[in-house]
Every structure is written in C-alpha cells, then in structure tokens.
Design brief:
Strand content: 5-15%
Number of domains: 2
Helix content: 40-55%
CATH class of the largest domain: Alpha Beta
Number of strands: 23
Strand order of the largest sheet: 1-14-13-12-11-10-8-2
Largest sheet: 8 strands, parallel
Number of helices: 28
CATH architecture of the largest domain: Alpha-Beta Barrel
C-alpha cells in the first residue's frame, strides 16, 4: 500500500498553546522549563493526531519556538557577532533576541530582518552571512526531536531546510554571494546527517523550496555540489522536497541529483506530473503532493483519484508516497473543533487533520478498498452540491464585473495636480507625522470583545467602551502632536477578519488559527461565494473619530489584494476575479468615507508583493490585475482626497514600477529592520509620490531612542526630497503595549520637529 505522510504540521496548537507559552515566558511569567514542556506536549499531541488520522510516517524537527529558518541558522552557528555575548549567557535569550530584538543597559540589539516565506503569509527571519563565514554543528535539536518521536513509538522522518535554499534565503551583509559559502556549510550538514543515521533515521527530508524559483547556472551548480557531497556523507536516505509550484526547467536538475526520493507539488502544479513521471529514475520514490496544503477545501476525487491511479500504475506501492502539497503549517489544525460552522459549508472543508484523512482514503482506494472508494464518492457528491447553494453566485456582483471599464480604475487628475490641491486642503507641515492605523489592543479591549461575543456585554455597553477607547487614542495623538490621526481600530479584531465579517461571500472559523510569525497568529476568513458589501463597514468609526478633532483623520481599509491573499479563497473562480469583486466592494466604502468628510483614506496592501508568482514569467499578468484592483478601489475619488497605502516586509526592487502604477498619493513601507535599505528601489526609480519609510520596528518590544530614529530619517533625507517624506512607524501598533507605544511615538514626533526646524532654517 502507498505510504501516507506529510511535510510538516502546524506548531501553535489548536488553542494557540504555543503563543500563550511564548508570551508568558517573554513577560517573565513562566520559566524556561515551562516553555519547553509546553512545546514537548504540542509535539507529542501533533504526532499522535497525524498518526491517528492515517499518516504512516510523521516528520520531526518541523516544530519551532519561533521560526524554522532561524532554527537552521542557530543550528549551524550562523549567529551574527552582536548576539554572541547574549548567546553565551543564555542560548534561548540569544535566540529570541535574533527574532525580536533585545535591549539591555541602554544597548539595543536589533532583530534580524523578517520577510515573507515565498508567496505565503508566513514570515521568516533572514539569516545574516558574510564572506568567510564559518559554520559548525552547534546544537542537537533535529536529533533530540527524532529521538523524542521514536520514544513515543512513531516512525519519524527528520526535516531540515536544505543547504542551498538556506543560503539563498539568507542575506549577505557585505555584498558577497551567499552561495559561495556552500563549501563551508556542507560539512556541518554532513555531520548532522551521520548523527541522524546513527540514531536510526532511515530517511531525512531536505526542503529545497527554491527549486520552484528561477535558477541560473550558479544555482544549478550549487545544487549539484551540495547533493554530491551529502549523498556520500553516510546519512539516511534523502527525500528532496520542492513545493509552492512546478519544478519547470529545474526538473532535470532535481531528478539528476543523487537523492532517494523527490516530493513535488501536484496541487499547485498538476500539469508537471507527466514530465516528472517520464524522467523520474527507476530507483527513486515519488512523494506526490496530492492535496492542497495551503487551502481549506477538500480535494475533488473526480480529478485527483484518476491522476493518482495513473501514478500508482507507473510506480506501484513501494515508490509512491501520498502527502499534502507542502507543509501543513499554512492551514488550521482540526475542522472537528468548528462546531458552529454551517454543516453545508463545513462538509466541503478540510484542515490539517482532515487532509491526512483524505490521503488515507486515497491510499486505501488505490489498494482496492471499496469502503475508501465509497468515502471518496460521497465527498465528490458533497462538492458537486456546493455550486448550487444560495450565495455562491450573486447575479448583481457578476453584472457589475461585466460592466467594468478602464475608466473605473482612474483618478481624476495626475499626482502633480492632486498634490497641490491636497497641500492646500490639508495644510500639513513638512515631514508630516502619522501612524499606520492600529493602536494597542489592550487586555480590557479584548475582554470587552469576548464578553460582547458571548452575550455578556450589551451592544450599548460595548459601543460605549469602543467610543471611550477611540477618544483616548485621538486625545493622545493630539497631545503628542501627530499631524494626521487615526481612530486606532479598537473595534477590529484583525485587519482582514473585520472586513470579511461585513462582506457577503465570507465565513469564519472559531479555531482556524495559523501562524504568521513567532507568537503572532491569524484566523483567515474563508471566501466561499461572490463578494459584496451590503452596508458601510468603517464610516461610523471614522466619522466619530473625526468629530473629536479638527486635524485630518485617516479612514482605514484593508486593500483588495490583501483581503484576497490573507483569506482561504474559493477554488472555483480565478483569483483575479475574486479580487475584482473585493475591489468593487471597497470602492463603495471609499466613496462613502469621502462623502462623510474623510479626506485621507488609507488602503493597505501589505500582501501585494507576497502574491507575486514565484517565476518571473508569471509576474506581468499578476501585477496587471493586482494593480488594477487597487486602482478600482481608489478610483473616482476627488483630487483633494489623499489616498495612502501601506506595504510591509517587501522587496520593492523588482516591482517598483507596479508600486508606482498604483498611483497612491502616499505609500508607507517597512524599512527599520533593513536600516532604510529598502528605500534604494524608490531612489533608483525616482519615485515621485509621498513616501513614509518606517522609522522604528513595531515587531520588537524595544523602544527606539530618538538618536536611532533621527539617524534613519537623516538617511532617508539623503535620498528623498523633504517634500516627499512622511514620518511614521513601520507597521500598525496593535501588538505593542501602551508603555512601548507612548514613548516611541513621542520620540518620533520630536525627531520630525527637529528635522523640520533644520529644513526651515
């Protein structure tokens, strides 16, 4: 019978147990032993759950206290010198300093840069490397967790980020090529593989997701060198895992490497199957990524079962493994917990546990078990019935899409004209100050929201709580001298979920948490039908906040691409069609805000770069519809209405033309962790519109000093015109405390005033 396995499991726990354990430890409310015990229990629970769901082999070392790329850097001693003194005192404190930053004795250790894991909403920490870097096997985490799984009676396969992808995903701090470090890195990998083999591991999974990217000759040579070295290291058999797309022109490279098995993504790239089968060596196992590891819909047996029968006929039981397309890190854990979901919707969904159950059914069906075939037949009948359910198709939404014209996506005048009018209407000083939108979500706010949802706090009492918080935020901003204010988003649980709850076509889970980074978890909404806005979503709170002040108040919206990217999207329509539906709904909101007197409107698009396809050949088509959707949302407003957007943790060099084509009046971007290096793209391109480069890192608990912020602003003024520059943090303040937020913002405003005075002089 074909073996059932998976590439990795969610780490956070069904009830976000890891989040709570981490944050208790960071608050000094829990000792190190308590954190490690919580992690051990989660690993044991998840291995057991996967086995009980039908997995024959479970991965190990896929668990992390923060991030698996950071784990790899620490494992091979790729620790920047600035962190080593802290590591020498406490390895765990050093580890979290690399992830979150650390302040001690007036000295600030900045965190590593953080960026998106390929085209997902997971963030990884970017290792820092340099020419002459030395590596060494500096820990035993993979070995310890393999032994832990063995002791619990599991057949386990250790997982490691492969050496080439590790280097490619790292950052060179001196301009050297990280791949030049491969010779130095391989002995450490080889030593670990030997230890795993001695401990009884018969297979090891080496993840090389960069095989889904464009490769040059240097990349191909690096893969050949790496796996020639590792195959002779005396380690376990190697499963080379690629995912997130087709191997494409890297297929010959992948099958030519001296490994024992190859994992391919057949959910995102089913079209590659024939090519893979035609060239797969006869001694090689194929791990078929059959069910989608990144979405919550059940697979369609009418399409998948014939495909798997075809593979099985070619390879037989011994050479065919069944797995999700990628790690299950990107989906929630268990649909069984979603007892409040409508049964007709729930029947078509699958979380991590259910995806393994699906794979077990497919494996049993391939083995000729009639009961499994009946289960799959029933699943197909459910999916066929979904398309006929009310709300899946909305004739008014479809008619509106059909009526779209190029004019829908246009502003009334060019930016040069708008800028003059906006300056007259808003009357802002040079280097205007603002924030990205959210203010701290206090424990009191969270308790009030939970009580309201549980029916223990009346609507009137809840509204009064929110109004008091909005007024508090507005008065604080006035007091410290911010120029463009926000209402603080006290009413919002999440920047995507909040809007999805008010849009037709969305549904929500109660326990559908996925990890974004570290302890930060999100609960993505599920788009199941045509998207429409039945009523205004934000006007009430923006206008209330504006009524409290004479200063400009920003209306705050999440953009169409981000609402798409950070949701689980229906799989029966092209993504760009769903995105246009969302854009039209947001367009109505923008016009309602404008009509209500809100003169500054921010449409956040932090996921625009994230959605970029992995292959350059596919970029133009994506960027065309993504930019069009933003412009549809912002189109048609008056010239005096200032449109902002925000993007974070993005590499802009390759997409700067598309960013400019969005034609936002002001863009704010994350630049603090990169020390303003991300501005280089805007300088080379001579970006003409307003830019707010973040002057401090809100993802770190460290409060920046004024000297640090001044240094960053001066660096920005070296390359930007003072008339372009806005002053703001690098992201929303929701996850920070007031004791961190207040001094940071006061310092930020003071820096802007100091530079303003210099400009005036």
């Amino acid at each position: 019978m074909s073996l059932v396995t998976h590439l990795g499991f969610p780490r956070i726990g069904l009830k976000r147990e890891l989040k709570r354990a981490l944050e208790a430890h960071w608050r000094d409310n829990a000792p190190v032993d308590a954190l490690h015990e919580a992690a051990r229990k989660l690993r044991a629970r998840h291995w057991r759950l996967a086995r009980d769901a039908g997995a024959d082999v479970v991965p190990c070392n896929d668990f992390s206290l923060y991030d698996h790329v950071l784990d790899t850097a620490v494992l091979f001693d790729a620790i920047p010198d600035r962190y080593r003194p802290l590591f020498e005192r406490s390895e765990l404190d050093g580890y979290f300093a690399m992830a979150r930053g650390h302040r001690e004795g007036g000295h600030d250790l900045h965190a590593l840069e953080m960026t998106k894991w390929f085209d997902t909403n997971y963030h990884y920490l970017v290792p820092e490397l340099h020419a002459g870097q030395r590596f060494a096997l500096a820990g035993d985490k993979p070995l310890a967790e393999f032994r832990e799984a063995q002791a619990l009676g599991h057949r386990a396969r250790p997982v490691l980020l492969g050496p080439v992808s590790f280097l490619r995903l790292s950052k060179s701090v001196d301009g050297s090529n990280p791949l030049d470090l491969l010779d130095a890195l391989l002995p450490a990998y080889a030593g670990l593989l030997r230890q795993l083999a001695e401990a009884g591991a018969d297979w090891v999974q080496l993840d090389e997701p960069c095989l889904a990217l464009d490769q040059d000759a240097g990349g191909h040579a690096a893969y050949r060198k790496a796996y020639a070295g590792l195959s002779g290291a005396g380690g376990p058999q190697i499963l080379l895992a690629s995912y997130f797309g087709a191997l494409g022109d890297n297929l010959a490279l992948a099958v030519g490497l001296p490994v024992h098995g190859l994992h391919v993504d057949l959910a995102r790239a089913p079209h590659q199957l024939d090519a893979v089968l035609d060239v797969l060596p006869t001694d090689r196992v194929l791990s078929a990524g059959a069910v989608d590891g990144r979405n919550v819909w059940r697979s369609r047996p009418d399409k998948l079962l014939p495909l798997l029968r075809k593979v099985h006929a070619r390879l037989g039981d011994e050479r065919l493994w069944l797995a999700p397309s990628c790690s299950l890190l990107h989906v929630p854990i268990d649909l069984d917990a979603e007892v409040a979901l409508p049964p007709e919707r729930r029947a078509s969904m699958a979380f991590a546990k259910q995806k393994l159950e699906e794979l077990r059914a497919y494996a049993d069906a391939l083995a000729g078990h009639a009961a499994a075939e009946a289960v799959l037949h029933a699943q197909q009948a459910v999916l066929d019935g979904q398309a006929q359910q009310a709300g899946v198709r909305n004739p008014a939404v479809r008619a509106r899409l059909d009526a779209l014209s190029p004019q829908t996506a246009l502003r009334r005048s060019a930016y040069a004209t708008r800028r003059i009018l906006q300056a007259e209407v808003l009357g802002l000083p040079p280097l205007p100050t603002t924030t990205i939108g959210s203010f701290p979500q206090t424990d009191d706010l969270r308790r009030a929201r939970a009580a309201h949802r549980a029916g223990k706090l009346s609507d009137a009492a809840y509204q009064a709580t929110l109004e008091a918080e909005v007024e508090r935020v507005v008065r604080f901003q006035e007091a410290i001298g911010l120029d463009v204010l926000v209402h603080g988003e006290a009413e919002r649980n999440d920047m995507v979920e909040y809007f999805g709850e008010q849009l037709d076509g969305y549904l929500f889970t109660r326990h559908g948490w996925v990890q974004s980074y570290g302890s930060r978890c999100v609960k993505p909404p599920v788009i199941w039908g045509d998207v429409a806005r039945p009523a205004p979503m934000t006007v009430r709170w923006s206008t209330y906040a504006q009524s409290l002040t004479t200063r400009p108040m920003k209306g705050m919206l999440t953009g169409p691409v981000t609402l798409l990217q950070w949701s689980f999207v229906r799989d029966d329509l092209p993504r760009e069609t769903v995105c246009r539906q969302i854009a039209l709904a947001l367009r109505d909101e923008v016009h309602d805000l404008e009509a209500a007197g809100i003169g500054v409107i921010q449409i956040d698009e932090p996921a625009l770069r994230e959605g970029l396809p992995l292959r350059r050949a596919d970029w133009p088509a994506y960027l065309a519809w993504a930019v069009e959707c933003f412009r549809i949302a912002a189109g048609g407003v008056r010239d005096a209405t200032q449109i902002h957007t925000h993007m974070c943790y993005s590499e802009f060099n390759d997409i700067i033309e598309a960013v400019a084509a969005m034609d936002a009046d002001v863009i704010s971007i994350e630049t603090s962790r990169s020390r303003m290096q991300l501005l280089d793209a805007f300088v080379r391109f001579r970006y003409p519109n307003g830019i707010g480069p973040g002057v401090y890192d809100i993802h770190s608990p460290c409060v920046p000093t004024q000297d640090e912020m001044l240094a960053l602003l001066r660096r920005a003024l070296d390359v930007l015109d003072a008339g372009q520059l806005w002053v703001n943090p690098d992201c929303g303040l929701k996850t920070r405390s007031w004791k961190e937020t207040e001094p940071a913002l006061r310092g930020m405003v003071a820096c802007a005033r100091q530079l303003r005075a210099g400009i005036a002089a």
